[in-house]
Amino acid sequence: MSDTTPARIITVAAAKGGVGKTTLAYELAAALSGVLVDLDWDAGGATRMWGHDPTRAARVPLLDALERGPEGRPPRPKRRANQPALVPAHPDLSASRIDADLVGDCLRAWAAAFEDPYLVVDTHPGANPLTDGAIQGADLVVVPVVLGAREMDALEAIVADYRDYRLLLVPTMVPAVPPRRFVERLAGLAEAGRITVAPPVSEHRWIRRRLRRAALVTQPNPGVRVRAAAAEFRAVADTVEVACG
Asked: How does residue 124 score in pLDDT terms, banded at 50, 70 and 90?
């Protein structure tokens, strides 16, 4: 158990995929010098992005740690230069029967055990016990927001469901000229409760074409477009730090 203040738990959650959730979680974990706990078992998630193939592993440390419970040994994060520390996901998480309360208890215990200042949790889109538990245990729930009609409808449902939690909305994949009606709709949601809106992350289509990679915010010798994108993710990280006090 660490003698320092427990890590802040930042859960990144979205009602649907394709909104930049995993990229946001990955970059936040790197910018905040935190551990990324990957609860998204899909093949296109942060674990593969990091460069780890869970199907080649003999064991599933994350699932084992969850089954041991909060009193058991926490998982050991994988570490590599210029990438966030990672507790990798595994396809077996999709069939797990881990209770949401247990997930929240485990995350809080791990936050106290890890020496890193933040524990960032990437979640599987939609409702499931792992995501629900990660939200229950969070100090801050970060929700990526795409400024589109269906995405805003989904966001309103999330805000209603998570009204008891501290929310940070992050506009992602924002075009050069954001649709005004959706910007106003987002502002209206923020005014309605305990909600903060972070600086936007622009539409960087090239990011989605990058597979195994260093985090943008820690990449050595970055080019112009990497520097621009990294600055946006760092601005979101700064907002997370302020929101967490």
From this structure: very high
89: alpha, beta or left, given left = phi > 0 and alpha = psi -120 to 50? beta
Q: Rounded to two decimals, what is the model's pTM?
A: 0.93
Q: From the CB of residue 239, how many other CB atoms can be counted at a distance below 10 Å?
A: 18
Asked which of 44-48, 187-191, 213-217, 232-236 is least confident by mean pLDDT, the reply is: 187-191
Phi-psi group of 32: left, alpha or beta (phi > 0 → left; psi -120 to 50 → alpha; rest → beta): alpha
DSSP summary character for residue 13:
-
Question: Residue ranges per domain, the chain?
Answer: 8-243
Query: Which runs of E-coded beta strand occur in 181-237?
Result: 195-197
Give residue for tokens 């791990």. 110
Q: Using alpha carbons only, what angle is made at residue 123 by residues 116 and 177, rounded to the nearest 5 degrees?
A: 100
Sheet containing 118-122: order of strands: 85-87, 35-38, 118-122, 8-12, 140-145, 167-171, 195-197
Higher pLDDT, 78 or 5: 78
Q: Per-residue pLDDT tens for 83-95?
A: 999 999 999 999 9
Count of other CB atoms within 10 angstroms of residue 211: 9
Superfamily of structural domain 8-243: P-loop containing nucleotide triphosphate hydrolases (3.40.50.300)
Pick the more confident residue, 122 or 15.
Answer: 122
Tell me the torsion sign for CA atoms 206, 177, 237, 12: negative
